[in-house]
Design a protein that fits this description.
By secondary structure, this protein is mainly β. It contains 2 helices and 29 strands. It has helices at 2-27, 335-344, and strands spanning 40-42, 54-55, 58-61, 67-73, 80-86, 94-97, 101-102, 107-114, 123-132, 143-144, 151-152, 156-161, 168-175, 178-184, 192-198, 203-213, 216-217, 224-228, 240-245, 250-255, 258-264, 267-268, 277-281, 285-286, 294-302, 305-314, 325-327, 331-332, 350-354. Strands 19, 20, 21, 23, 24, 25, 26, 28 and 29 form a 9-stranded mixed sheet that branches. Strands 11, 13, 14, 16, 17 and 18 form a 6-stranded mixed sheet that branches.
Length: 355
C-alpha cells in the first residue's frame, strides 16, 4: 500500500514539473525570425556590353513581390518608365533583370516593388536606385608596355594595360611625319591589350595611344618615343654602340637596343661623302672654327690595331647646316650636342655609319 502511495506521489510531482517547465518555456522570449534582405538594385559587371554600349539592371527583391517597376532618367530628375517585370513566384525572394538598355548619358535607374501584378496598387517596397554614367565604363588611360627609346622592327607589337575593356584603338605618331593608326582590339585578363602588326615611319617617332569602347575614349597614354631603324640584324651585336644613320641624318647613342639619346647631324655632300662602315670613337680634342668647340676622331680598326680614318664627329660654326649634306665627309653636330656626346659616350665605343 505504501509502495502504491509513493508511486502516485512521484507521478503527481513529475506532472507538476512538466507543467511548470511548459509554463516557463511559454513565458520565455522567442528568438526573432531573421529579417528579410532589403531590396537592392545594381548593374552587374558581367552584363555590361562594351561593344554595343548597353547595360542590364538587376533587382534583388524580397518575398511578397508580384511585380517590379523600373524607371530611368537623368540624375536628380524624374525617371521615365522603363520596364515592368511580373514575378513568376511572389512567395520567394529572388533576382530579376531588365532588358538591355543603351547608356548614352549618366542615368539613374530606380526600382519599386508591388504586391499586385502589373505594378498596380500601393508600392510594397522602394524606391531603390543606382546611378551609372558612360564615363564610369570608358577605358582608363593606357599604360604602354615598351620602355621609352626602344628599337622596334618595321612590323611590331605594342602591349598596353587599361582599367576597363577596350574594343578600338588610335595611335598618333609624330616624328619625321605625322601618322594615325586605327583598328579594333580585344582586352584580355588584367586589362592587357596587344596591338599587333603595327608599322611606324622610319626613324624616331613619339607615339600616344587612345583606347575606346562603345561608352567613349580613354585619356591619352603618356608620350613614348620609339625608333624604327630597320632590322635589328643590320645593327652591331654589341651592348653599346653609336649609330650614324645617314637616311635620317641622326646620331643615335644605343645601349642594349634602347636609344639613350639621339641628335640631328649634317653629313658629307655627294662629292665629299661621309664613309660607311665600322669605326672606333677616339678621345675628344679641343677645336675651334669650323670644327666647333671639340672633335672626336673616328678610327678604322682590325682587332686591337687602330689607325686614323681622317674623319671626325665634331661641332660646327654653321649650325644652319645641321640636317643637310654639307660637310667634307665628317659628321657635324650642334656644339651643345657634341659636348653631350663627349660627356656620355666613352672612348673606344663602336660607331656604325650606314646609308
Amino acid at each position: 500500500m505504501n509502495v502504491r502511495r509513493s508511486l502516485v506521489v512521484a507521478a503527481l510531482l513529475a506532472a507538476a514539473c512538466l507543467v511548470a517547465l511548459a509554463a516557463a518555456l511559454a513565458a520565455a522570449p522567442q528568438a526573432a525570425a531573421a529579417p528579410a534582405a532589403p531590396p537592392q538594385i545594381s548593374v552587374p559587371p558581367a552584363t555590361i556590353d562594351y561593344a554595343t554600349g548597353t547595360v542590364t539592371v538587376a533587382v534583388d527583391y524580397p518575398a511578397g513581390t508580384a511585380s517590379v517597376v523600373l524607371t530611368a532618367g537623368a540624375p536628380a530628375a524624374a525617371g521615365q518608365p522603363l520596364q515592368t517585370i511580373d514575378i513568376a513566384d511572389p512567395t520567394t525572394a529572388a533576382t530579376c533583370t531588365s532588358n538591355s538598355v543603351a547608356l548614352k548619358a549618366a542615368t539613374t535607374f530606380t526600382a519599386q516593388g508591388f504586391a499586385a501584378a502589373d505594378g498596380t496598387g500601393q508600392p510594397a517596397w522602394g524606391p531603390v536606385s543606382v546611378t551609372i554614367a558612360p564615363a564610369d565604363l570608358r577605358p582608363t588611360a593606357p599604360s604602354l608596355g615598351l620602355p621609352g627609346g626602344s628599337l622596334i622592327e618595321t612590323r611590331f607589337s605594342l602591349a598596353a594595360t587599361t582599367g576597363r575593356p577596350a574594343t578600338r584603338y588610335v595611335i598618333h605618331a609624330a616624328g619625321f611625319g605625322n601618322s594615325l593608326l586605327k583598328g579594333v582590339c580585344t582586352t584580355a585578363a588584367g586589362g592587357r591589350v596587344v596591338l599587333a602588326g603595327l608599322r611606324l615611319p622610319y626613324g624616331p617617332e613619339t607615339v600616344r595611344l587612345w583606347l575606346a569602347n562603345a561608352f567613349g575614349s580613354s585619356p591619352a597614354s603618356p608620350r613614348l618615343t620609339l625608333f624604327d631603324l630597320g632590322p635589328r640584324s643590320r645593327l652591331p651585336k654589341v651592348a653599346r654602340f653609336v649609330l650614324v644613320d645617314k637616311r635620317s641624318m641622326s646620331l643615335y647613342d644605343i645601349f642594349h637596343y634602347r636609344v639613350l639619346r639621339h641628335y640631328p647631324v649634317a653629313i658629307g655632300t655627294p662629292q665629299t661623302p661621309t664613309p660607311n662602315g665600322l669605326f672606333k670613337l677616339g678621345k675628344a680634342q679641343p677645336a675651334s672654327g669650323p670644327w666647333g668647340p671639340m672633335r672626336r676622331p673616328l678610327y678604322r680598326f682590325k682587332g686591337s690595331r687602330l689607325w686614323a680614318s681622317g674623319f671626325f664627329i665634331h661641332g660646327t660654326d654653321a649650325p644652319w647646316s645641321i640636317g643637310t649634306m654639307a660637310s667634307h665627309g665628317c659628321v657635324r653636330m650642334f656644339d651643345s650636342d657634341i659636348r653631350l656626346v663627349t660627356r656620355y659616350v666613352p672612348v673606344g665605343v663602336l660607331v656604325q655609319i650606314r646609308p
